[in-house]
Structure formats: structure tokens, C-alpha cells
Backbone:
């Protein structure tokens, strides 16, 4: 459970900008759309075996997801996150619901709403939001990891482990996620 809280804290914080060494190691991303840049970084993520580079690339992808709806959408998502951190969940949801009305295919807004629902303890809403976002971005490793935390909080370690493994299959370089997987495996082995 301790690792689940650490993972959630990482998901709630804004992604750390990836360092210049990542671009230098793998070349520069295309100057195209955020979607093209995300694809570029996913290709690099699949190629790297270095843990630090993998984490930096994962951070870069998360930053691009946040920016993929444009500057206004990114600002609104940051404001919603700040409201949620202050315990103003209704205000956070109002902002995110408004953004969803404007950009319903923006995967990251669904992820941000799932995070707010998790903070509120509305686990059914988290699952619904993650299912929606996976229609638009099936590689969203952070959402899959969060889904694992949600299932774990709901008492379903089997589904939690499946979600965490799906997340790690996409990005094996997520801080704390391998440890959470091991914790879930140990728990399930104790119950057999």
C-alpha cells in the first residue's frame, strides 16, 4: 500500500521536464504535432535499456500528453490539479468537465479527472475515466499504473496486478512501479 501512495504522488505531480541528455542520446523529436512527438519518444522508450534515460523519456511523454491539447488546455489542467490539491474537488471537476466538453478526445484530461476521482475515493469513476482515455491513448502507462492503484484500493489485487503489468509492458522505467508489482505478487502468493 505504501508504494501505491508513492506512485499516486508521482502521478499527481507535474511531470519533470526531461533533460537535454535525452534528446542528445536519441536525436531530436520531429517538429510536428504533439502526437508525432509522442510517437517519436515511444519509439525511443522501446529502444532504451538505461533506467535513467527511460525515466526521462517517460517524463517527456507525460509532458507532451499534458501539452497535447494546447496551452489553454494545459493551463486548465494545471489549475484543476491545484484546486484538487487544495481539496477543492468540485472546482477541479468543473474545470475538467468543461475541458472535456471542448476536447472530448484529449486523453490527458480524462487522466487528470481520474486522478481527482481517485483523490475523492470515487473508484468507479476512476475506472470509467481510464477506460475512456484508453480509447484515445492506449499507451497511457501512467493511467494504467493508476488503474492498478485503484483496483488495489478496491481490494482487487488480481486486477491491480494485471493493470500494473500492462503499464510496465509499455514503460518498464516508472519509479516504484516494479516494486508495486512485486508487492502485489507477494500479496497474491500469500493468499494462495
Residues:
Amino acid at each position: 500500500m505504501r508504494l501505491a501512495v508513492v506512485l499516486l504522488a508521482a502521478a499527481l505531480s507535474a511531470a519533470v521536464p526531461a533533460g537535454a541528455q535525452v534528446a542528445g542520446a536519441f536525436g531530436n523529436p520531429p517538429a510536428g504535432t504533439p502526437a508525432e512527438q509522442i510517437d517519436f519518444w515511444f519509439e525511443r522508450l522501446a529502444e532504451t535499456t538505461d533506467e535513467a534515460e527511460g525515466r526521462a523519456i517517460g517524463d517527456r511523454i507525460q509532458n507532451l500528453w499534458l501539452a497535447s491539447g494546447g496551452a489553454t488546455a494545459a493551463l486548465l489542467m494545471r489549475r484543476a490539479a491545484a484546486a484538487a490539491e487544495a481539496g477543492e474537488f468540485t472546482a477541479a471537476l468543473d474545470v475538467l468537465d468543461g475541458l472535456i466538453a471542448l476536447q472530448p478526445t484529449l486523453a490527458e484530461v480524462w487522466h487528470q479527472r481520474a486522478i481527482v476521482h481517485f483523490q475523492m475515493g470515487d473508484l468507479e469513476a476512476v475506472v470509467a475515466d481510464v477506460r475512456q482515455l484508453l480509447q484515445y491513448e492506449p499507451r497511457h502507462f501512467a493511467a494504467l499504473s493508476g488503474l492498478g492503484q485503484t483496483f488495489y484500493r478496491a481490494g482487487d489485487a488480481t486486477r491491480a496486478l494485471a493493470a500494473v503489468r500492462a503499464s510496465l509492458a509499455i514503460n518498464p522505467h516508472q519509479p516504484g512501479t516494479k516494486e508495486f508489482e512485486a508487492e502485489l505478487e507477494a500479496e497474491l502468493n500469500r493468499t494462495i
User: Anything to note?
Assistant: The radius of gyration is 16 Å. The mean pLDDT is 88.
